[in-house]
C-alpha cells in the first residue's frame, strides 16, 4: 500500500516508463494533476493500457483537499501522475510532506522535466542559476533573479505562467515585454532589446522548437506550440557560443 508519485515526462503517454505502466496497472485509483503544465497524454490510450479511468486533479484538489486520495492510499496502491517530474513543482513537495505526515508510504518514479531537458539547448546545466517564473500579474521578482544570476555569469531559466484549464499560456512576446517594462523602470541594463535570449517551445514533444536571438528579434517570431520558456544566457564557453548559433 503506497501513494506513487509518477512523472509522465514532457511528451505523450509513450514517455511513461515500463515500470510506471506496471505500477499503474496495479493501482486502485490513478490521479493526474492538470494545472502545472499542458497535458499531452491521450487519456483514452493510457486508460486502455492500464485498465482504469484517470481522475483529473485540479489545483484545489491537490493543495486543499487530497484527503480522499490519502485515505485510499492507506488501504491500497494509488498513483498521482505529474507532468514532467514529480518534484519540478514545489506544490508536489508539499503534497509529499503531507502524505508522509498522514502515515502514508510514498514512492517516487522520476521522469524528464523542463529543468533537465533544457540541456538540449546546449548551455551547460551546472551553469544555470536560480530558476524563476514570470506570472500573469505584475512582479519584479523575475527581473531580480535574472539580475542576481547575471552578476555571477550564470544562465537563467524563466518559466511562464499558464492556466491550462482555460487554454491560456503566456507567450514569449508577453514575457519579453514583461521584462522590458521592468527594465524601463529600473534602467539597469539587465534586460534590454539587445539581450541575447533563447525561446524554448513544447520541449519533449513532436512540435518542439528552439530559437535564439536578441530579445527584439524573438519578440517578432511566431511561436505556436505551448508551453514556452525563456533562457537568458550568462557567460558563455566557446562551445555554448557555437550551440547558440545552431538555433538562430
Characterize this entry briefly.
The chain has 248 residues and is α/β, with parallel strands linked by helices. 35% of the residues lie in helices and 21% in strands. It has 2 domains: 3-112, Cobalt-precorrin-4 Transmethylase, domain 1, CATH 3.40.1010; 115-246, Methyltransferase, Cobalt-precorrin-4 Transmethylase, Domain 2 (2-Layer Sandwich).
Structure in words:
By secondary structure, the chain is an alpha/beta fold. The protein folds into two domains: 3-112, Tetrapyrrole methylase, N-terminal domain (Cobalt-precorrin-4 Transmethylase, domain 1, 3-Layer(aba) Sandwich), CATH 3.40.1010; 115-246, Methyltransferase, Cobalt-precorrin-4 Transmethylase, Domain 2. Helix content is 35%, strand content 21%. It contains ten helices and twelve strands. The protein is elongated, with a radius of gyration of 19 Å. The termini are far apart.
Core attributes:
248 residues, alpha/beta, Cobalt-precorrin-4 Transmethylase, domain 1, Methyltransferase, Cobalt-precorrin-4 Transmethylase, Domain 2, five-stranded parallel beta sheet
CATH superfamily of the largest domain: Tetrapyrrole methylase, C-terminal domain
Strand percent estimate: 15-25%
Mean pLDDT: 96
Order of helices and strands: EHEHEHHEHEHEHEEEHEEHEH
Q: And the CATH topology of the largest domain?
A: Methyltransferase, Cobalt-precorrin-4 Transmethylase, Domain 2
Low-confidence stretches: none
Largest sheet: 5 strands, parallel
What is the general shape? elongated
- For this structure, what is the CATH class of the largest domain? Alpha Beta
Helical content stands at: 25-40%
Amino acid at each position: 500500500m503506497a501513494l506513487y508519485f509518477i512523472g509522465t515526462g514532457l511528451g505523450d503517454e509513450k514517455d511513461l516508463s515500463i515500470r510506471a505502466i506496471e505500477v499503474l496497472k496495479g493501482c486502485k485509483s490513478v490521479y493526474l494533476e492538470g494545472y502545472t503544465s499542458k497535458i499531452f497524454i491521450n487519456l483514452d490510450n493510457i486508460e486502455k493500457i492500464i485498465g482504469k479511468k484517470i481522475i483529473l486533479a485540479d489545483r484545489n484538489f491537490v493543495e486543499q483537499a487530497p484527503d480522499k486520495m490519502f485515505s485510499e492510499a492507506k488501504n491500497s496502491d494509488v498513483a498521482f501522475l505529474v507532468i514532467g517530474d514529480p518534484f519540478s513543482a514545489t506544490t508536489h513537495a508539499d503534497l509529499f510532506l503531507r502524505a508522509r505526515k498522514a502515515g502514508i508510504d510514498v514512492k517516487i518514479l522520476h521522469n524528464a522535466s523542463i529543468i533537465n531537458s533544457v540541456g538540449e539547448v546546449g548551455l551547460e546545466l551546472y551553469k544555470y542559476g536560480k530558476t524563476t517564473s514570470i506570472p500573469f500579474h505584475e512582479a519584479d521578482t523575475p527581473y531580480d533573479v535574472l539580475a542576481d544570476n547575471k552578476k555571477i555569469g550564470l544562465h537563467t531559466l524563466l518559466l511562464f505562467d499558464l492556466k491550462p484549464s482555460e487554454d491560456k499560456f503566456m507567450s514569449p512576446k508577453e514575457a519579453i515585454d514583461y521584462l522590458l517594462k521592468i527594465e524601463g523602470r529600473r534602467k539597469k541594463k539587465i534586460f534590454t532589446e539587445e539581450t541575447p535570449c533563447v525561446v524554448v517551445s513544447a520541449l519533449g514533444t513532436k512540435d518542439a522548437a528552439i530559437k535564439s536571438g536578441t530579445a527584439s528579434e524573438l519578440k517578432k517570431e511566431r511561436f505556436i506550440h505551448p508551453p514556452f520558456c525563456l533562457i537568458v544566457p550568462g557567460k558563455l564557453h566557446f562551445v555554448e557560443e557555437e550551440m547558440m548559433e545552431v538555433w538562430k
